[in-house]
Structures are given as structure tokens and as C-alpha cells.
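Q&A log
Question type: sequence-to-structure
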Amino acid sequence: MLTATAVSLVITVLDWSNAFRGALISLVMLIPLLLVAGLRVQPRPFPAYPQPTQPLSTTALPADLPAPVARYYQTIIGDEVPVVETAVITGRGTLRFMGITFPARLRFTHDAGQGYRHYIEATIFGLPLLKVNERYLDGQARMQLPVGIIENEPKIDMAANLGLWGESIWLPSIYVTDSRVRWEAIDESSARLIVPFAADKDTFTVYFDPETGLIASMEAMRYKEAASTEKILWQLTPLAWDTYQGNLIPSRSAVTWADEGTPWLVIELDDVAYNVDVQDYIRAEGP
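Response status: OK
Response body:
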């Protein structure tokens, strides 16, 4: 394709009567090629969070967990569970926006079990093209997107709360150290995770790999947009696992809406920092 475009440009130089038309055709042919090339360039990771992981105290793993849940924690942590109060998760991956899959880099900042801030850049040629600043703090979501700002929307607040608890798979001890969270048995390879939402609660179904004991997927019914009339199945699927700061967590994950059928977001971790100071950072903007 590039050879054909080059030949076209040479021909236009030799035949000046058609130069303008030929140059225009060549440009039209080059633009899609440049876009494809630009979408193949991965961005550099964000710099590591300036404060390293701070010492983590531990508490005993509860003895009354459903069998697949107990096996999961024995596999990733053991009998002593670290108490995580904050987390900064830095990574890269891909993000689908308006039908186009962009390379992306991201940073998720968590006040464990309370709120988060997301900063995401969709890139081309490794450079930021679209930026997302969104947060869920004090029970309210605010999404600063390329298409505008969304806030003061109860369905988005509810969706953001599920996002908070779904992303807590990267700080998994919160599922057993937060007294507001509880597990219910379903069968030998799945369990129900019940999490708080304002004065109410919400629910995930968590499936465990029978061979490894690790989480195979987490699913919840979630509103997709502020104007949604029905909830849609939302799925978080770990694709690979690795150890960060002594915790075995998903190193690569996919996020899928059931009505889309394929992941709209794939995340690969670069760095995780626990129990760092995020008091001001979680309310800031940018990386």
C-alpha cells in the first residue's frame, strides 16, 4: 500500500496537469495508513507514583468464608491479610471509543472502599489524543470526558460504586477487611460478593477457576449511561496474574459490557503502590 502511494506521488510530479488531483488522492490514501500506524504505537508508562508502598499491617483471614473464597485468599495471600487503605494503580492497555480501539495509559487512585479517581489518556503515535478525568468521591460521580461532563446522575453514581468495588480486585484484602462487605456461598466454584452503596447494597457474582483457585471473572448488573432504562451485565475478567508488593493480583484484565460482546478496556499493570498519601491527589486532575 505504501509503495502504491509513493508511485502515485511520483506520477503526479511528472504529470503537472493532474498534480493537484493526484496529490489529493495520495493524501486520502495516506491518512488511513498513518492512523493505523499511529494506533500501533504504545505510549510510555506514567512515572511511578512518587511515594513508594508504605508498611502494611495485617489481620487474620476470617474463618467463615465460603470455600472457594477461602481457597482464593489462601492462594493469593495466606492466613495473614494486609490492611490496605489506599492504592495507586498505574498501567497501559487499550481503550475502545466510538468504535476505534486506541492504545491507552491510565492511573487509578483508590481510597479503599470509599472512592476513586481515574485519569486515562487514549493515544496515537504514543501521544495523548483523548483525556478522561473522572472520579467517584463522597458518593457522587463526576466524569470529565472528551464529549463533555457528566455529573449529578444517580445511575452513574450507582455504576461508579460498582466500578469502585470491581477495581478493588487490585487491592483484594478490602473484600475481607471492610466490615460492610460480606460473602455468600453459591457453589464450589462461585460466590456472591455483597458491597455497600450509600444506605443500600449491591452485588457481584464472582466465579473462581477450579484448578488455580483464582478469580476467573466478576460480574454485576450495571447502568451503562445516565439515560439507561435497564442494567446491562458488566464483566471484569483477569487474563494474567503477578505479584505486586506481596499481593498476587491480576496483571492483565479485560472489562466487557455484555451488549458489546468484546472488551472495551484491557489493562496491563505497570506499577501498584499501597497505603500512600492520596488525600490531595485523589481530588486533583491529570497524571
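Response note: The longest strand covers residues 232-244.
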